[in-house]
Specification:
Layout lengths: L2 H28 L5 H28 L32 H19 L9 H24 L11 H5 L7 H19 L14 H20 L7 H29 L4 H18 L5 H18 L2 H5 L7 H19 L18 H31 L6 H6 L1 H6 L30 H4 L4
Helix pairs in contact: 1-2, 1-3, 1-7, 2-3, 2-4, 3-4, 3-6, 4-6, 4-13, 6-12, 6-13, 7-8, 7-9, 8-9, 8-10, 9-10, 9-12, 10-12, 12-13
Length: about 450
């Protein structure tokens, strides 16, 4: 057992864990002050529930031997309850328990991402039930497809092995999966009360703090996926850094050209968009390729967040525009920018590798998008027809925090003669003025 690699993966796991409160702060800052507690609780609650399911059967369903030869799902009973993994294995390169908790946190973060599409209008109990079913029927199978590699007498997932697509840390299994699931959930939920109106994020500094924590946590997410403290992790660390910076600048450029100013929400969104895009590509490209992918993602995602106004779906915090689109951009651009000098060792179109890799990446992306959207829509629709997903309209108007959690985020709520966060004030847009959320949004 390599103690250096073990120490690095322990550190990486802690960094990935940091992404859950980082996401909660990031999302929480972008909703109104009457929704922040619920938004943060959805992140923590969904991740916590999935952690329990992961121990019971999720790890087995993801990394167990495939049921059959198609590589669609691992055996959910193979490591049931994880009772068999406690003994020390002196021949193992890493403790199995450490790899299990590292991947457990991936599952938790992915589930929490989906919550952004349901901000302020979904029953908390319904969300937890949805999150558990979604993890079992969508995340665990898709993660098996992408992350489970063949081993000694073990059949892994079809995307990782039979198709051979490149996804270093989860552009398909995490970001596209969560993004398209958010789209399906948003469609079933319907628009929130006052959708498209002048409401503004109630705490922009909180958004930036959350984005900063996500950035730091992403190093564990990406570089930790190398599973060793060596050159591959170092290259990935470098690519992740420069891509994030390029994404921030790319989104800022579009902001400036289209709206005349560079906003803090735009900066945070561009940063996260690029981190999403470089996630599958971080081990496949050079630093210049990483810069290109980050900048392209920042630009495209900035334009994509406005789709919700054109198409009429209420993706409250732009999980679709940032995570689905950003993940797709990064996955496809591997087919252009991949170089065999990078840790993944394959070349794309710009490095003489031909179009085959691009086709493989597109097939993997298409399969994940189709499966996740259809199954998520069915899950959400069945729950909506049985237990109901939406909170009462008056609870939504009053604010979900008080009704769902019997708490207010802040004790100094405005008096009757002061404007609330749901009413325009002198420094807030009126009904006929676009808000920052209409011009620039975030995941």
């Amino acid at each position: 057992m390599d103690t250096g690699n073990t120490a690095w993966l322990l550190t990486s796991s802690a960094l990935v864990a940091l992404m859950i409160p980082g996401l909660a702060l990031f999302y929480g800052g972008m909703v109104s002050s009457k929704r922040i507690l619920n938004m943060m609780m959805m992140c923590f609650g969904g991740a916590s529930l999935v952690a329990i399911l992961w121990v019971i059967f999720g790890y087995s369903a993801t990394f167990g031997d495939s049921l059959g030869d198609l590589g669609l799902l691992g055996d959910p009973l193979q490591f049931f309850g994880l009772e068999t993994i406690l003994a020390d294995d002196p021949d193992a390169a890493l403790p199995l328990a450490l790899f299990i908790v590292f991947q457990l946190l991936f599952a938790g973060v992915t589930t929490a991402l989906v919550a952004g599409a349901a901000a302020g209008r979904m029953k908390f109990g319904a969300w937890l039930l949805f999150a558990g079913i979604w993890a079992a029927l969508v995340y665990f199978p898709v993660a098996h497809w992408v992350f489970a590699f063949d081993g000694d007498n073990v059949v892994g997932g079809w995307i990782a092995n039979d198709l051979g697509a490149i996804d270093f840390a989860g552009g398909t299994a995490v970001h596209m999966n969560a993004g398209v699931a958010a789209l399906a959930l948003a469609i079933v939920l319907g628009r929130s009360k006052g959708w498209g109106g002048p409401l503004k994020p109630h705490n922009r500094p909180l958004v930036l703090v959350g984005a900063g924590l996500l950035w730091v946590g992403w190093y564990g997410f990406n570089a930790g996926s190398a599973l060793s403290a060596g050159n591959a992790a170092s290259v990935v660390f470098l690519n992740t850094t420069v891509a994030a910076c390029a994404g921030l600048l790319g989104w800022a450029l579009v902001d400036r050209l289209r709206h005349g100013s560079v906003t803090s929400l735009g900066a945070a969104s561009g940063l996260v968009s690029a981190l999403v895009a470089i996630t599958p590509a971080c081990g496949a490209v050079s630093p210049m390729g990483a810069i290109a992918i980050g900048a392209i993602a920042g630009i495209i995602c900035c334009l994509a967040v406005e789709w919700k106004f054109t198409l009429g779906y209420d993706d409250s915090l732009d999980v679709v525009g940032v995570h689905m689109v950003g993940g797709l951009v990064g996955t496809l651009l591997i087919g252009f920018f991949a170089t065999d000098a990078a840790p993944n060792g394959q070349s794309g179109l710009f490095y003489g590798g031909g179009a085959l890799l691009l086709g493989i990446q597109a097939l993997a992306a298409g399969a994940v998008l189709l499966y996740s959207f259809v199954v998520t829509w069915v899950i959400a629709k069945v729950l909506d027809l049985t237990i109901g997903l939406r909170i009462p309209e008056q609870d939504e108007v009053d604010g979900i925090d008080r009704h769902a959690h019997a708490e207010d985020a802040y004790d100094d709520e405005p008096s009757d003669d002061q404007p609330s966060d749901d009413q325009p004030s002198d420094d807030q847009p009126s009904d006929d003025q676009p808000s920052d959320a209409d011009l620039v949004s975030a995941p």
